[in-house]
Amino acid sequence: MNSEKLSTRLHQVAAYLIEYANEPLRLADIGSDHAYLPCYLGLNNHLEFAVAGEVVEGPFQSATNEVAARQLTDIIAVRKGDGLAVVTPEDHLNAISICGMGGSLIRDILAKGEDLLTPEMLVVLQPNMASFQLRQWLNLNQFEFLTETVVTDHQRQYEIIVARKVAEPVESLSLKALQFGPFNLQHPTTAFYEKWQGELAVLQQVRQQLEQTVDATHTKAQAVREQIELIEAVLSEAPTDMTTT
Ligand code: SAM
């Protein structure tokens, strides 16, 4: 992967930013590592301005070097700091991307920078795990889900969520929608089913281990069984040309 050719995962994030952000795009990419995403957008003339935020020195240096090498320093500011602390209202952002972290960390970064999340702000988020917690926070904090998907990249499945802050509270999502994603349930991709087959296999192993160590009525054993049933029900709706074993 580089700034000219993104991974499948980040390419989908870029496509969503191009499709859903108000123009001209003014982006904060938090946890920007090599700054490949903002550089790709800059090189392809989709960017007016971006902040590439990084909290760790090594990735911050990589991002700084990449932006300089691509001669994009006039439109991409690489800043070192925690989450949205690197951004100010004077940056006039209209979009934020946070990718490649746990969903709970993404949620905490958004919550800490809440003042910057004004109505119309677009967020494109790619949690590696805990997407339930992230969707729940978005749902409770006046974000409207615009779309989402699951993509496969190097044999791994990645969820990508696109939402926009709105002025009024939004309708509460069901627990099922928070877990699987409202759009994923409506338009499941093959990668969506592969992700949940993988999660199911892990939970089945946990259930097996629990059955050997605790009573079947134990709260944890019961919770795992309920999760398994929920996932199996969603997987049973997969078209027959998708493997659901
Ligand atoms: N966003 C890139 C991607 O998706 O390919 C890089 C993902 S990398 C796995 C996660 C990056 O987030 C790391 O470079 C890490 O230093 C950075 N990071 C973690 N917590 C952060 C925070 N609170 N603020 C800014 N950056 C953070």
Summarize the structure.
The protein is built from 9 helices and 7 strands; from the N terminus they run H-E-H-E-H-E-E-H-E-H-E-E-H-H-H-H.
Description:
With 245 residues, the chain is of the alpha/beta class. The protein has helices spanning 8-20, 36-43, 57-69, 103-112, 131-140, 175-180, 182-186, 190-213, 219-235, and strands spanning 26-30, 49-54, 76-80, 95-101, 122-127, 143-153, 156-165. It has a seven-stranded mixed beta sheet with strand order 3-2-1-4-5-7-6, sandwiched between helices. Helix 4 (103-112) runs parallel beside helix 5 (131-140) and helix 8 (190-213) runs antiparallel to helix 9 (219-235). The chain is elongated. The mean pLDDT is 95. Bound molecules: S-adenosylmethionine (SAM). S-adenosylmethionine binds next to strand 2 and strand 4.
Share of helix, binned: 40-55%
Order of helices and strands: HEHEHEEHEHEEHHHH
Number of DSSP helical runs: 9
Question: If you compute it from the alpha carbons, what radius of gyration comes out, rounded to the nearest whole angstrom?
Answer: 19 Å
Shape: elongated
Largest sheet composition: 7 strands, mixed
Average pLDDT for all residues: 95
Uncertain residue ranges:
none
Strand content: 15-25%
- The computed structural class is alpha/beta
Instruction: Walk across the major sheet and give the strand order.
Output: 3-2-1-4-5-7-6
- What's the total count of β strands? 7
Bound molecules: S-adenosylmethionine
